[in-house]
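Homework help thread (please don't just give me the answer)

Our assignment gives two proteins as sequence + structure token strings and asks us to describe the second one. The first is just a warm-up. Here they are:
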Amino acid sequence: MMRRQVLEATHGFDPEYYLYGEDMDFCWRAKLAGWKVVYFPGAVITHFGGQGGNRQEENLRDDRMACAMWIFYRKHRAPTVAFSPRSARLVLFRHRAQDGRSGRRD
């Protein structure tokens, strides 16, 4: 939940994000605009999407999450760093290899 003034002050959610990271980006921008951001651990949300996903969907989710983290990093942490989204995917690939999952799409 948020006040309309927060949405107006931050210009809403950034359409560059797809599925992951838009909430983190929004909260970061709200905080920078002087609004208080609060996490309430007692909240319960039931999400029925993505139940029982297969390996390919899991890999796609990981790719989208890595892309979202890249967008956040580029926007807020290092806007002048020459670091490509492909580099972020290579880091994810290494993580999968260490975790026992391959980056291969079946």
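The one we have to describe:
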Amino acid sequence: MNEFSWKSLARDVFRPPESPIVFSALTGVGLHLIATSLLIIILICLGVIKTEHHGNVMTVIVFLHPFMAFFAGLRAVQTCTVFDV
């Protein structure tokens, strides 16, 4: 009984997604948002960005957001190649 349930679970867990292109895009978007947020928080904690001037934080966000999109695109392409899309 235990072996049957593990085989059934493994079949569900390790199956490819129904729409690998959408999955790849969502992976890239998730990386983009998380990486941008974490990098801004790290820069604020290190004191590189002064929070007293809100314009400084917004300027860093405006310049950092497109820069991190490059890495999000790389992640999406890598995910696409995993699923042979």
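TA reply:
I won't write it for you, but here's a hint about the kind of observation we're looking for: The chain has one domain: 18-82.
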